[in-house]
Every structure is written in structure tokens, then in C-alpha cells.
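Progress note, sequence design subtask.
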């Protein structure tokens, strides 16, 4: 693949002004809408630990979800190329973040449970997770470990 550049444009619109803006730390809501042309908006907020709305997506959720989704898409692509038919894929991904002087993620663990067609090469299906990780644009952009603990089942 060549060195093509791709751009992704989103609008994050703060909707948490409760009348006095940011006049005090507890005076404003953390709610926002994430928008991109032609797509449904995503309701966002901060983590409840930071006075956010637990019913809305927070940036940390979205980072873990983006990492999981990117890995999955590469994995499905590589399985298709290898002649392995994935019939189901569910990932219970988890990210760990620590607070401190400079808060940061310390790792993301992907835990995909994959069902492949009976008779397909289960060990190859397992190994393709490594290749998917190597190709994942999101994982390649992070400065902390992304681990993968796959479970492969047959139909």
C-alpha cells in the first residue's frame, strides 16, 4: 500500500452550558455532541469520575472502542484473504487509565471471541490476530501496549 494521506473531520459541539458557562468547575455540564457530515451524532460527556454523564460516551470509551474496531476490521480482512470464514466476532475490550500529574492510558486489552466455520484452520485464525495488530492504524498510533487475548471457536 502506498503512502496515501487520509483526513478525518469531526465536530465536537459542547452542549453543557447551564446558563453561566464555566463560571465554576461544578457549574457546567460536560455534555457534547460528536458530529461528522452524513453520520448520526454521538452523545458524549466525560467519565462520571470527572462529573460526566454515565449514559453518554466519554473520550476514553471511544479510544478503547476505536482500537477494538480497527483491530476487528483488519482481522476480518486478513481472515477473508486466508480463506477463513469468521461467522461471529465479539470483543470485550478494556482500557486502563491512571490519573496523576499527567493522566494516561497504560494499556488496552482486546478479548475477541471469534467463531469460525467448522473445518477452518483454528491455529491460523488465532495467529492472524498478531498480523491484525501489526496492521491496525489505531494501535500503531498509541504510545502504550495493546494486548490481544483471543478465543477461537468453531461453529
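Output:
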Amino acid at each position: 500500500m502506498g503512502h496515501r494521506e487520509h483526513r478525518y473531520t469531526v465536530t465536537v459541539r459542547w452542549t453543557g452550558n447551564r446558563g453561566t458557562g464555566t463560571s465554576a468547575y461544578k457549574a457546567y455540564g460536560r455534555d457534547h455532541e460528536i458530529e461528522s457530515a452524513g453520520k448520526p451524532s454521538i452523545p458524549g460527556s466525560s467519565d462520571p469520575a470527572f462529573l460526566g454523564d454515565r449514559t453518554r460516551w466519554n473520550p476514553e470509551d471511544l479510544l478503547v472502542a476505536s482500537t477494538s474496531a480497527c483491530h476487528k476490521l483488519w482481522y476480518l480482512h486478513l481472515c477473508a484473504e486466508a480463506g477463513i470464514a469468521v461467522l461471529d466476532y465479539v470483543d470485550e475490550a478494556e482500557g486502563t487509565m491512571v490519573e496523576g500529574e499527567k493522566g494516561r492510558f497504560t494499556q488496552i486489552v482486546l478479548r475477541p471471541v471469534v467463531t469460525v466455520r467448522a473445518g477452518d484452520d483454528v491455529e491460523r485464525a488465532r495467529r492472524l490476530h498478531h498480523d491484525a495488530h501489526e496492521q491496525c492504524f489505531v494501535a500503531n498510533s498509541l504510545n502504550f501496549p495493546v494486548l490481544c487475548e483471543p478465543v477461537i471457536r468453531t461453529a
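The beta strands are 11-14, 32-35, 42-44, 86-91, 94-98, 104-110, 112-116, 146-148, 151-154. Work on this subtask will continue into the next period as scheduled.
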